[in-house]
Amino acid sequence: MQEGTFTAPGYRRGTVCPEPDVFAADCPTRLLLDRIADKWSVLVLTVLGEGEVRFNGLKRRIGGISQKMLSQTLRSLERDGLVVRTVTPTVPVSVSYATTALGCELLRTLRGMVDWAERRMDAVAQAQTAYDERERRLAQAAG
Amino acid sequence: MQEGTFTAPGYRRGTVCPEPDVFAADCPTRLLLDRIADKWSVLVLTVLGEGEVRFNGLKRRIGGISQKMLSQTLRSLERDGLVVRTVTPTVPVSVSYATTALGCELLRTLRGMVDWAERRMDAVAQAQTAYDERERRLAQAAG
DNA sequence: CGGAATCCGCACAGATACTG
DNA sequence: CAGTATCTGTGCGGATTCCG
């Protein structure tokens, strides 16, 4: 097993790549991309971009997320240094989450993706209709 | 079931939301986000951003992708109007993929995400180490 | 309130084989 | 070369329960 110069924690497989390359299955950057190119991560970070939010606030805001996935996503984001968790020892305890500077930096590019989805949805919908129509015709022609 | 003004194909659930909102579990934009905030979609589009590529070219370039996932991802991207498929009737047949204008637009924001991952990997790795160390201490203190 | 722990199903992903 | 078809398993994610 050859050693590379580019290693990182959270990187669990057998080989190490000499430089950052998201296209290499075993590169740490690829594993990182797998985590951030994830719908829940994107949504959580986007909400946190609006300001500090508490656990159940996030859960209420993000439709369809389970407590488990929210918990897992938050822990992963915190471990990667993208989110900070703040515990206020009230009764019952109050826990809030916010983006770090690093998370904020990433968030700028994620926001572009979310905005694009909301802005271009109609164009995508048209493309889908056209595609489905073509498929339908082909299937019919094939009989 | 109330009708909204904002509907779209590929939208299969019971309710319809009146305006684009990625935080609503049943909004078409949310379903779109689920598809593009996906590691394989991001990697495929990123490769295609470099120019027209054939099926096996993509497969070779993207480490760890199975032919099934590549095929599914490409079909989904094509249906959403982000990618065009071109068949050249040679023997054997040659099929190449490229981004559409719409896909190119999305790609600009995706590239930001990929670049960020490669650029900030070291900061993330540091955060992970610190987090794991904190966890280790807490676990030890708890005995 | 903010989780952790447990159980469990099924959809998704991998592997393999086959086809035009 | 560029896929489809089929099978199989497994781990993701939902539901539920319990705790500080």
Which two chains form the greatest contact, residue counts included?
A: A-B, 59 and 59 residues
Give the neighbour order of strands across the main sheet of chain A.
Answer: 1-3-2
Write down the overall geometry of chain A.
Answer: extended
Kindly provide the radius of gyration of chain A, computed on alpha-carbon positions and rounded to a whole number of angstroms: 20 Å
Please give the largest β-sheet of chain A: 3 strands, antiparallel
pLDDT average of chain A, as an integer?
Answer: 87
Number of strands of chain A: 3
Account of the 3D structure:
The structure is a homodimer of 143-residue chains. Chain A is mainly alpha-helical and 143 residues long. The first copy, chain A, has helices spanning 28-36, 39-48, 55-61, 67-79, 101-142; strands at residues 53-54, 83-88, 94-99. A three-stranded antiparallel β-sheet of chain A has the order 1-3-2. In chain A, a hairpin with a 5-residue loop joins strand 2 (83-88) and strand 3. The longest helix of chain A has 42 residues, at 101-142. The first copy, chain A, is extended, with a radius of gyration of 20 Å. Chains A and B meet through helix 1, helix 2 and helix 5 of A and helix 1, helix 2 and helix 5 of B. The structure holds a DNA duplex (20 and 20 nucleotides).
